[in-house]
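Readers of this paper often ask what the protein records in our data store actually look like. This encoding replaces a full spatial description with a residue-level series of whole-number codes. For reference, a complete record is included directly beneath this paragraph.
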Amino acid sequence: MRKEDREFLKDLQHEMLNQDTVGQADPRFWVVMQTVRDYWVDDNVDGICIYDKDGSESAFEGELEELPDWLKENFDEIVKCEYDGISIEIVCEDENKCFIGDIAETENFLEEYAPGQYSICNYRDREEIAENTMFLTLRECNEHIKKNGYHYNKPHSYAMTAWRSPQIERLYKILQNTDWENIYMNNTWINIKEKLPEPKKWCWIWFDYGNGEGCCEKMYLTTTGKWMKNALSQVKEEYVEYIKAWQPYYEPEPYKNNS
């Protein structure tokens, strides 16, 4: 393995283990979530869309309270146009007075003062995961949005879990638990007499009992030179002499014929 690849994996591991989990279970990943607008809806309405048939484009999209400014800008005959929190009161030069409180009343006004020019519908906004987005870290997801936000509509990062995906779960364990600083791609055993593992880092230990039998166990070395199977279980002194070699921790467990 090249040095730059080991450095990449080591940095990625550190970032994955120390980033904000945002309450999402591992194996977690991030995607880009964006806002998608659905037109011609009848319920859970967020606003109205007025389409200019002559210009072949949307002339107005927004909530009812935002409509008065557009109406005054596009209809010179309006002398008063105010939203009172419920509906829009409109007074025109011909002294015609009307109230707009829904899409049907808006359509009636448009047909009276600009017949055939506009079509109108309701719309609803919803969030949707953007296609082809997947990031191992929150930082990279946010950087992607910062650089490519113009491709999306109101984008933001969104955490997910690869639920019941054994392959992804195993891959994450390898990425997060392997000692990339000392990994040897041929998985060779390192003689205890030549080099000790770094304290407080999990590694594979090979016990050689000298009678053709041995076993491999996951453990770590303390700063005081004690071999620990876990925080509460120390290797008995009479077995320490059988510890002959070690490897940086990775999965799956190495076998005796790797020695």
Notes: The first strand starts at residue 28 and ends at 39. The helical segments are 3-18, 67-74, 103-113, 138-148, 166-177, 237-240. The mean pLDDT is 90. Residues 86 and 142 are 39 Å apart (CA to CA).
